[in-house]
Structures are given as structure tokens and as C-alpha cells.
Design brief:
Elements: H1 6-20, H2 25-88, H3 91-98
């Protein structure tokens, strides 16, 4: 992040000692340290929230993908069912459905006696 060497730290300490004074320097260092700690903690909290949101987005996208797969499977199953029903339906059944009322019968049922 910062490229500060030992020499730069000594210069900062000497300037701080001259500007602030020896009595207030320890309190000032503690205050500055507390501020730096708060800033770091805030950045870490923000980073964690962003990572959590990215994770939530990934989970949401996975759920949408799964929903689409299930929907496609249901549509395919419905088509196959319709094709099977159409394949089972014979021309005889089609003729029976257009016949006069009362003349149709269920499979296995005896014709009505008159």
C-alpha cells in the first residue's frame, strides 16, 4: 500500500515530536492508531459485505438456472405425455367419439342389448 521505509518513519517521529510536543505525543499516537484501526475495520466490513453480496448473486443465479432446467424438463415431459396420449388414441376411438350419443362404450364394456 504505502512504501514507507525506516528512515521515513524516523523523520515523521521527529517532526511529530517537534510539532506536538513530548507531553501530547503518546496521546496523539493512540488517537491516530485508533482512527487507523477504525478505518481498517470499516474497509474490512465493506469488503465482507461486497463478498457476501457477490456470493448471494452467485446463489441466486444458480437458483434461476435450476428453475429454468426444471421448467424445461416439465415442458418436455408434458410434450412426451401428449405424444403418448396421441399415439395411444386410435382411429377407432376417434370414430367412437363422433358417433351418436349412447352408442359409445368404455373398453371392456358389453354393447347395450336392445
Amino acid at each position: 500500500m504505502f512504501d514507507i521505509g525506516f528512515a521515513e518513519l524516523i523523520i515523521i517521529a521527529v517532526v511529530g515530536l517537534l510539532v506536538i510536543g513530548p507531553e501530547k505525543l503518546p496521546g496523539t499516537i493512540r488517537t491516530a492508531s485508533a482512527w487507523v484501526h477504525r478505518i481498517k475495520r470499516s474497509f474490512n466490513d465493506i469488503r465482507q459485505e461486497v463478498e457476501q453480496e457477490l456470493h448471494n448473486d452467485a446463489v441466486l443465479q444458480e437458483l434461476r438456472k435450476t428453475r429454468d432446467e426444471i421448467k424445461n424438463t416439465a415442458v418436455r415431459a408434458e410434450r412426451e405425455f401428449q405424444q403418448d396420449v396421441t399415439a395411444v388414441t386410435t382411429p377407432e376411438d376417434a370414430a367412437a367419439s363422433t358417433a351418436k350419443p349412447g352408442t359409445t362404450r368404455a373398453p371392456g364394456q358389453e354393447p347395450p342389448s336392445q
